Amino acid sequence: MPTWHRYEELRPDQLELLLKEAPIAHWPLGLLEHHGWHLPIGFDGLKADRICRRLADRTGGVLLPVMWWGGLGGHDVFKWSHYQDPKAFGGMLVETSRQLLAYGFRVLVLMAGHYPWQDVLDAEIPALRQAFPDALILAGTEISICGDAVTVRGDHAAREETSFGLALFPEQIDLDALTPGRDDTVWPGATPPPADRHHPRVEFDASAPLFAQMGEDAREASAARGEEGVAQVVDHLARTIDGFLGRDAS
Ligand SMILES: [Zn+2]
Questions:
Q1: Residue 239 sits in which domain range?
Q2: Which among 39, 98, 88 is positioned nearest to 67, based on CA atoms?
């Protein structure tokens, strides 16, 4: 199995050695945000981190710490969400990416678990590709990073994301927490936001079990469904990276 390591744990000499063997940097882009009663608030970052780890098992390289600071998407109306200024986190994304490519990484994987990262990537990645024309920059969410080659569906904390979670970190998911009848006298986080901040497709009834979710019923999620999607994404990206680096398929 190829070698991968956590970026922050390596010494300079180890980094140079790894760069020769596998010049690939995997960077999971997440966010802390309410993801329904049944998923952890770091869901997007955990999902991206686990997919990157699976990919790194195939390709080797370094795994950067999850980018936990992000924003956009309209779920900041729910308690336990941390949205930051897009200029701030977009700047960190671009600057860090430039540094990684300048240090010699030839492949940069920007795996966004939080879907609105796509807007930032769409705005920033073309200039990055122009500045580093010899690098392969794979950027997007798990539903977009393979282009049309893989069809994986997404949602917010509903059937699709819950399926990914059941496949990748089942120990942090509690479907039994999807109980009806919560109210904000007992559950302070169940206060619905003002009507003018309601997203049209999000469940805002705090007493509904699927509160704060957007998509199909999370109670129909399955690990098998999530695993199928993850395997497709990882396989496609691993083949793309191996092809770019001219190595035998991993
Ligand atoms: Zn999510």
A1: 4-245
A2: 88
Identity at 60, one-letter amino acid code? G
Each residue of 138-161: pLDDT tens digit? 999 999 999 999 988 888 888 999
pTM: 0.92
Distance from residue 45's CA to the centre of ligand 1 (Å)? 8
- 36 touches 212 (CB < 8 A): yes
How far is the centre of ligand 1, averaged over its atoms, from the C-alpha of 19 (Å)? Answer: 32
Query: Minimal CA–CA distance to 118: which of 71, 157, 84, 161?
Result: 71
Residue 48 CA to residue 67 CA, distance in Å, equals 10
Distance 159 CA to ligand 1 centre (A): 11
Distance CA 128, CA 137 (A): 8
Contact between residue 135 and residue 108 where contact means Cβ atoms under 8 Å apart: yes
- pLDDT class for 178, splitting at 50, 70, 90? confident
Say how many domains are in the chain.
1
CATH number (domain holding residue 208): 3.40.50.10310
Tell me what pLDDT residue 179 has: 84
